[in-house]
Predict the structure.
Amino acid sequence: AQKVTQAQTEISVVEKEDVTLDCVYETRDTTYYLFWYKQPPSGELVFLIRRNSFDEQNEISGRYSWNFQKSTSSFNFTITASQVVDSAVYFCALRGPNFGNEKLTFGTGTRLTIIP
Amino acid sequence: DAGVIQSPRHEVTEMGQEVTLRCKPISGHDYLFWYRQTMMRGLELLIYFNNNVPIDDSGMPEDRFSAKMPNASFSTLKIQPSEPRDSAVYFCASTPQVLVGADTQYFGPGTRLTVL
């Protein structure tokens, strides 16, 4: 069975601080896909990143960066120089490799509040 | 390009009434997913379709829930009769099919259902 754990329920930081959101996953698949989604106060789910299990390179996109470590089954998300617009609930998700494994398993989410 | 379209955005109904939620996936996407989000249970997959065929409906709560996809550009989720515990945000998502199965899921804005 697949499982995604986001142990941080809520985080508050002051604007311009860096913040890291943790994601730990469990799967028996050797090939799998990891995702991060953002849910702002308006409610929609916005796709941020997808990472394949065979690609352990870290990724940076502007102020966002992701640290994927298979050895610890973690896929952490860091926001550098946080802004108020980053306030949202962030979900980590996991999917299996092939046909018949299209389900996304979501974590419970981390509510991030950026204090101006 | 238009994203996933859901209607209505908000629905308030009384217990016992029939509710129909609608979804138009992104053109060319072969998979369509229905999710439900509540505070207690988080994001749950209800059912998903591939090429208009239901693949996995194990997440559908009970017989009061039914989903159809009569063509590639339209799907409905129906609740009959509705109950207060069905109050939630219902999301539709779609994704294209790639060589190794489904790709990244893109979500619609959601329908907020309130059953009084």
Observations:
- The interface with chain A takes residues 31, 33, 42-43, 45, 48, 50, 55-56, 89, 91, 93, 95, 100-102, 104-110, 112 of chain B (CB under 8 Å).
- Chain B has a mean pLDDT of 92.
